[in-house]
Amino acid sequence: MKRSFGDKAAQVIITALLLLLCVSVIYPFLYMLAISLNTGSDAAKGGVYLWPREFTLYNFQVVLGNEVIRQAYWVTIARTIVGTIVGLSVTMLVAFGLSFRSLPLRRVLLGYVLITMLFNGGLIPLYIQLYNLSLINSFWVYILPSAFSAWNMFVMMKFIQGIPDALIESAEIDGAHPFRVLWSIILPLSKPMLAAIGLFTAVMHWNDWFAGAFFVSDQKLIPVQTFLQQLLSAQDMSAVLGGNNNMEALVRGTNMASVTLMSVKMATVMVSAIPILCVYPFLQRYFVKGVLIGSVKG
Predict the structure, then answer these.
(1) CATH number at residue 168
(2) What is the model's pTM?
(3) 47 belongs to a structural domain
């Protein structure tokens, strides 16, 4: 079928707009990468946009040599792994239970879950509740409050209800109890859905800085994103050095004049962003499935 001039013009315009959108998304990342790989004193003069003018790894040596950010990385990795596993497990169990239409008070329970998704008590009641539960200034403040997601529960429940009833009924006829049905039938068929929601949950835990900033005061328990937020609002290098004698010796050995607060900030952004960026290309297809999950019932 031959396309008209209007169709060709529309395709050219759409392609140009998408290219501009891609450039607007990629350029800030390239700019920060160039600054992080450039000597700070030279970058302060301006003119560094896409590639470093005076290449150096001193900025990354300062960042990776900081005990605070290394500890923050371990906290973030542990939080992401534990939080994702706990979140998927708890939410999946609730979704499986509420997927049974014969469950007593099912509509009441669904309404209660829906209310928690639409409304919340606010930050102060949440803080008071976490304080009464002894979760303030604890690693578990990252895990337990986010162990259940109402939105993810509805998505999981919709997916489970889309599984043919004949599969579940045949297992029940053979004597399978509910947990056996969940383990042998529901979970194997739910792998694409669990991968998509698990990816969303992991990204949420990795990128969250709020909990560490408001619910944790112990510097050894803050995640890397909270450390980055503190660093971006810092006014001098003391936030980076943190009174660490080894860090001070490292900075002196790398020529302090070549390291600036801005260059260290950009290096920290790169160090915190690159791991999750490396995961995206391999799991991108699950985002498409995640958007479609529950929208079409087979």
Answers:
(1) 1.10.3720.10
(2) 0.78
(3) no
- State how far the alpha carbon of 211 is from the alpha carbons of 65, 144, 149, 194, 198, in Å: 25, 12, 16, 25, 20
Question: If DSSP codes are grouped into helix, strand and coil, which group holds residue 174?
Answer: coil
pLDDT of 190: 84
Chain centroid offset of residue 243 CA: 30
DSSP calls for 88-134: HHHHHHHHHHHT-TTSTTHHHHHHHHHHHHH----HHHHHHHHHHTT
Residues of the chain below pLDDT 50 = 243-253, 294, 296-298
The runs of H, that is alpha helices, within the chain are 5-36, 40-43, 58-64, 67-98, 106-118, 123-132, 150-161, 165-173, 178-181, 187-189, 191-207, 210-214, 224-232, 238-241, 245-253, 261-292
Instruction: Tell me the pLDDT tens digit for each residue of 144-155.
Output: 999 999 999 998
Confirm whether 152 is domain-assigned.
yes
pLDDT of residue 66: 77
